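step=predict obj=EpsI family protein n=464
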Amino acid sequence: MIYNHGYLVLAGTLYLLFVRRHALQKLTINGSPLAIVLLVGASVALLFSQAADIQVFRLLLAPIIILLWGWSIWGRDFLKVAGGPILLLCFAAPIWDDFSPLLQHITVFFNNIFLQIADIEATINEFLITLEVGAFLVEGGCSGVRYLMVALFLGAFYGQLYYRSLRSKVLLIITAGLFSLLANWIRVFGIIAAGHYTNMQTSLVKDHELFGWVIFIIFTLVPVFLISSRLESSPQETTKDEISGTTSGRVGGKHTSVFWPIVASFLLIWPPLVPIALQAKTEKVAQSWHPTLVEADSDWRGPLKHANVWQPDFSDPDIDLSGVYVSNDLKQVQLQITGYRNQSQNKELIFYKNRLFDSADWQLISTEKREIGDAYRQSPNHVNETVIRNKVDRAQVIVWSWYDVGGFLTDSKFEAKVAGAFKKITGDSRGALWALAGRCEVSKSSECEQQRKAFTLFLESFLQ
């Protein structure tokens, strides 16, 4: 688990606040209008990220909102005493995975240098390092992001505990981060070298978790500990006033009424209360939503069930309707409706696990936006056109897809996410993928053009 260190981050934050408890006890109400304005903006952003179910933003906003809440009530003295410890919570936010690809490339780059120095012949193809004895894949877990997070946190924690100079704190954090990267490069090289010299017989090739942390201690914790004592000549003395609880002690400020803690506390708690207040309406709207496949007219037959040419790869949808329609001149169109009555975490329309097709079965040929006009009541004027090929029978399929979010139609994932947040705030959390699919005549020069015409005729017959 990459974020197991989150418990360590929480414990460190609570410990620092405990150490500074006397300073916190001496704070007096000194409301800040600027902080209140910023807290309003942050609470609104939290409400929307909560409605859109953007977990990263929600978790990043949490420590920021706590800081703004304290600043709104006790003024800048709160930031001086509690700002640093609370910001440590950012090291537990799930944003660090995004750095893995970059760190993987850097790890491979330096290991290439180490291999050349050690005169070990290797062929490198992106993240794959191939030796005569075997191959090593530098996966996301080998990027060093875990060691980087822990090192940065420990550097920041030590700086908050002992340093008062911002320069010293920043230097220690940067130093810890650089040594953690070095330790990971050495760790990966050690595994590769062990595999090379033992003809892949060493257990390190498959089980190197303990080895990694031993390297981290030797090449990160020990050097950082030695360097930390030299960044400030007398670190214990520099924080004597802070630990004993001395603050600026402004007395007789203009904003000392209970108005400030009341307003700030309301802004702190209202975002979680909105979904609770709207829960009954959201459930009612969800249960009353029953999308259905369209009924065939005189020019088409269908929907024919269990005759699908394609299906999306969605995670546990509430609605999964599919049927194939056949025109009098034997044109075939599949109509697909897949979605969720009440979007929530891991059950949402725009979700990284939800894909238009299963890449294990299909190969992407092309994707583009296609304008179809605004004459159709169940589709936007632009749709996503995707052409895919089956890996088994090589059949080529064209898909026109779009999103319906509480009645708002769009071809854009971003617009669907934003609209979903707005709709959810009003008590409507419905969301569905609509799509038309059909086989292309790849033997013809026009390829999918005939199927595009069939889609247009279908829209004119049923969705106009």
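step=describe
The first strand starts at residue 123 and ends at 125.
step=end
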